[in-house]
Each structure stands twice: as C-alpha cells, then as structure tokens.
C-alpha cells in the first residue's frame, strides 16, 4: 500500500479511505441487500417470496417491494463506510509501518503484508460491529415492520437486550475481517509484484483495479463462511438464560455445514463476490488516487513555502 512512497500523516490516509468507502458503497449497496436476503433464507415460503439466486432476488425485490427497497438501510452503511474504510486503510498503513520497524525490514514483503492486513482487519472489526448489527436487522425481511429506522434498531436493541448487545457478533466479525483483509492486502501486494509496473496514470489505475479486484475476490472466498454465521449470530435476539443456536463463529460454521450442507456456508456468495471483487478494485483505485492527490497537494504547499 504505497508503502515505499512518501508517507502521509494519519489524517490523510484516514480521509482517503473514507472517500474510497463512500464511492464504493453508492455503486454497490443494492448487491449487499440481495446478499443478506439470500443468506437469511432458511426454508421455503410462497413462490413469490422465495429467491432462486441473486438475479431472481433482485427482480423480486424491485417487483414486490419497489426499487427504493434496494437502498433500504443505506443510512447506517453510509455512516459506517466512511469510518470503516478509513479505518481499514489507515490501520493497514500504520500496522505496515509497525511491522516493518519491528522486523527491521525496509520494504514490505508477502508475509508481512498478510500479517499487516490481518491486524488492520481486527482493528476494523471493533469499529464496525454495532453498525453491522443495525444493518443486518434492518435488511432482514422478517423485521421489516419491527423497526422504523437505524436509530430505532439501536433504541430497541439496547432497551430489550442491554447495551452490550450492540457488540453481539464481535467474535465472528473479528474473524470475518481478519480473513478478508489478510486476503485483500496480501493479494494486492502479490499482484502488484507480478504484473508489470505501469508508467502512465491510466496504466497504474488499471493495475490497481486488477490488484484490488483480485484481492477483494480472494478475501471473499476465504471469509464467506464466517460472514454467513455472523449474519445469523447478529440477527438473533438475545434472550436471558437461553444459549443461542449460533453462538461462537467456528462451532456455528460446523452447525451450518452439518445441518444444511457445505454449500450453505457459501450462501449469498455470488452477490457478495460481485460486490466485494469489483468493490475492492474501486476502493484501491479511489484510495490510491486520493493519496496521490494529497501527496501532490503537500508537495505544492512545501514548494510554495520555499519560494
Ligand atoms: C518477510 O520479512 C519477515 C521479517 O523480516 C521474514 O520473517 C519473512 O520470512 C519474510 N517473508 C518473505 C516471504 O520474504
């Protein structure tokens, strides 16, 4: 991640990550709604409400519930994407420096970029859990009439289940983000090593789209089972004295595999990978572009000072 380029202070990496995140969400959000619907579906209902895959789900939502439903629940992710992506990139930058110093390495290498990504993912998870919980509960069809909006989910969750319930699903979220970011940043490093360096701006953009998309795809392949169980853990209303069916991440993965088959662990995979593959590309391009812009801006400021 621009590790060998001139470093910029924390505020800049944070801002660049935020801009990248908002750009990505505006393009990709409807796929996320579809993904959650498919993941939460456990049995068969009436034919008009049963989704046979992503496209079918997409069409049925638009036909039965209206186009705007594809953007239902976006206020939480918009508010979340900025801090979340900002945390992802700023943490990756910071952990990268930390590990290079700790191991006395001047340059990034493959194993360090995986370790850096994993650490950035763990950092990110702490920021995203409450936002994710609100989003999952708004996206679930069963709860369409239950909550009037994001703040209502927060109020009802705290009132009925206690404030700690907002961190329901922390453990599975940690795993989901550790795996995704390790895959994402690890692949970006590797793909950038493999493909020829570009010497034009456009060439560099294409390289970033490719590296980011491969990273997003691989991250998604490794983390989807954890995402499925995370959706279910967070969608479960906590009842005092009852051990929830889905509780810890890896046992829940086994439960789903045993009861519904291995394929169930990849429920919602297609919309997710279509979102996070290209989404990973959009993120990296916007992030790199904004960082270049900031670098140039600072250079110009410094030059102006010298004159
Ligand atoms: C990367 O650097 C670390 C720390 O110096 C080292 O332990 C590791 O083996 C290196 N990995 C690769 C793939 O070169």
Automatic annotation (TrEMBL):
GO MF assignments: ATP:ADP antiporter activity; dicarboxylic acid transmembrane transporter activity
SUPFAM superfamilies xref list: Mitochondrial carrier
Keywords associated with the record: Membrane, Mitochondrion, Mitochondrion inner membrane, Repeat, Transmembrane, Transmembrane helix, Transport
Matching Gene3D superfamilies: Mitochondrial carrier domain
Topology term for the membrane: Multi-pass membrane protein
Transmembrane region(s): 12-31
Solcar repeats: 8-98, 108-194, 203-293
GO cellular component terms attached to this protein's record: mitochondrial inner membrane
Gene Ontology biological process: mitochondrial ADP transmembrane transport; mitochondrial ATP transmembrane transport; mitochondrial transport
Cell location: Mitochondrion inner membrane
One Pfam family in the UniProt entry: Mito_carr
Family as reported in the entry's similarity comment: Belongs to the mitochondrial carrier (TC 2.A.29) family.
Protein name (Swiss-Prot/TrEMBL): Mitochondrial carrier domain-containing protein
Source organism: Bombardia bombarda
């Amino acid at each position: 991640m621009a590790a060998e380029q001139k470093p910029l202070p924390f505020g800049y990496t944070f801002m660049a990550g935020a801009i990248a995140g908002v750009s990505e969400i505006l393009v990709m959000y409807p796929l996320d709604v579809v993904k959650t619907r498919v993941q939460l579906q456990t049995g068969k209902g009436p034919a008009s409400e049963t989704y046979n895959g992503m496209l079918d789900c997409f069409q049925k939502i638009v036909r039965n519930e209206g186009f705007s439903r594809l953007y239902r629940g976006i206020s939480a992710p918009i508010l979340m994407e900025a801090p979340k992506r900002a945390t992802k990139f700023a943490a990756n930058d910071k952990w990268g420096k930390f590990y290079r110093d700790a191991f006395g390495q001047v340059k990034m290498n493959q194993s360090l970029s995986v370790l850096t990504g994993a650490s950035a993912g763990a950092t990110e998870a702490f920021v995203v859990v409450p936002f994710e919980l609100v989003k999952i509960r708004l996206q679930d069809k069963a709860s369409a009439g239950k909550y009037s909006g994001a703040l209502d989910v927060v109020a009802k969750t705290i009132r009925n289940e206690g404030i700690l319930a907002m961190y329901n699903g922390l453990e599975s979220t940690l795993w989901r983000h550790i795996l995704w970011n390790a895959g994402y940043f690890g692949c970006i490093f590797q793909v950038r090593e493999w493909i020829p360096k570009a010497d034009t701006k456009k060439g560099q953009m294409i390289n970033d789209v490719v590296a980011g998309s491969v990273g997003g795809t691989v991250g998604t392949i490794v983390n989807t089972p954890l995402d499925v169980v995370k959706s279910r853990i967070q969608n479960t209303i906590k009842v005092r004295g009852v051990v929830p069916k889905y509780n810890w991440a890896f046992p829940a993965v086994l439960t789903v595999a045993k009861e519904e088959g291995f394929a169930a662990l990849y429920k919602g995979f297609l919309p997710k990978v279509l979102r996070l593959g290209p989404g990973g590309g959009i993120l990296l391009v916007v992030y790199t572009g904004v960082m270049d812009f900031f670098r140039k801006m600072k250079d110009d400021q410094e030059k102006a000072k010298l004159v």
